[in-house]
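Quick review question:
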């Protein structure tokens, strides 16, 4: 429940299962397992399958998903989104969206997938190939009977759950960032006037959670940043091998992302958390970033 959280320590304490343990704990504690009559063993199997479906990337890994889940949980309750923006099904969908938001991430950017004509870019017509993949692949797991922890939900509940998860995960595409932020700034309110406004606020909450490591202790933040830089450098190595232009900040022989955080903070992260905390004062601790 703390704004500062060391997911690396949780990963060690759970012997490599931070995501599945935290996911089950939060759902159980919120009464979602009993509320929807979910099978606890089946839910545990699903969460383990999701966790194992994450690639062991330096940054976009199951540990990152656990970190985003924890921050999303804190934002939801501090901002009181669970009062007027989320019913029990919405809370379940919000937790699930955070859990799967980078599922099966290849450790490469969407731009790289498009430039290299990757099968994911071909499948999704160059439109948010990563985010579409995270959603589709994770929902694919629910098609397996032994993993369908949502089986007790009615069809209308499943439809609402699926819609919210997709809307939230697709919003994590940075290409949508400024559009979502400007849209949110036009009409934030203590109570949503319609479902569009409700989803927009939840999208912003997940986007803030996705960069939540900026609010961790300096040592924890530096570890996340180092891992992100390494993941970017690995893509730069691939770009060099393929003979395509190396993306800015992805060249090992030059300055990396760890030297550009001030710009990201000023132009992306700060306006994002300012918008959320202005609309929902309970989330003002985010501004400590």
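Suggested answer, residue by residue:
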């Amino acid at each position: 429940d703390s704004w500062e959280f060391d997911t690396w320590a949780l990963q060690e304490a759970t012997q490599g299962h931070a995501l599945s343990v935290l996911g089950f704990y939060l759902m159980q504690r919120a009464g979602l397992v009993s509320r929807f009559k979910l099978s606890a063993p089946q839910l545990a199997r699903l969460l383990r399958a999701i966790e194992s479906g994450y690639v062991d990337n330096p940054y976009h890994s199951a540990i990152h998903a656990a970190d985003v889940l924890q921050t999303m949980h804190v934002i939801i309750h501090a901002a009181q989104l669970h009062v007027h923006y989320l019913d029990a099904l919405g809370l379940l969908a919000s937790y699930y969206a955070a859990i799967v938001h980078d599922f099966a991430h290849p450790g490469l950017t969407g731009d790289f997938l498009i430039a290299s004509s990757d099968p994911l870019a071909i499948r999704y017509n160059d439109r948010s190939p990563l985010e579409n993949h995270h959603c589709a692949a994770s929902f694919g797991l629910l098609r397996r009977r032994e993993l369908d922890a949502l089986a007790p939900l009615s069809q209308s509940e499943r439809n609402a759950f699926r819609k919210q998860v997709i809307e939230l995960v697709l919003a994590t595409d940075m290409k949508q960032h400024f559009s979502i932020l400007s849209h949110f700034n036009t009409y934030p309110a203590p109570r949503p006037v319609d479902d569009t406004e409700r989803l927009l606020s939840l999208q912003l909450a997940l986007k803030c959670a996705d960069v939540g490591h900026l609010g961790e202790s300096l040592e924890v933040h530096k570890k996340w940043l180092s891992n992100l830089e390494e993941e970017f450098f690995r893509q730069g190595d691939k770009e060099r091998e393929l003979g395509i232009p190396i993306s800015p900040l992805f060249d090992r022989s030059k300055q990396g992302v760890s030297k550009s955080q001030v710009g990201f903070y000023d132009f992306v992260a700060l306006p994002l958390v300012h918008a959320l905390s202005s609309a929902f004062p309970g989330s003002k601790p985010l501004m400590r970033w």
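Why it works: The radius of gyration is 18 Å. The chain has a mean pLDDT of 94.
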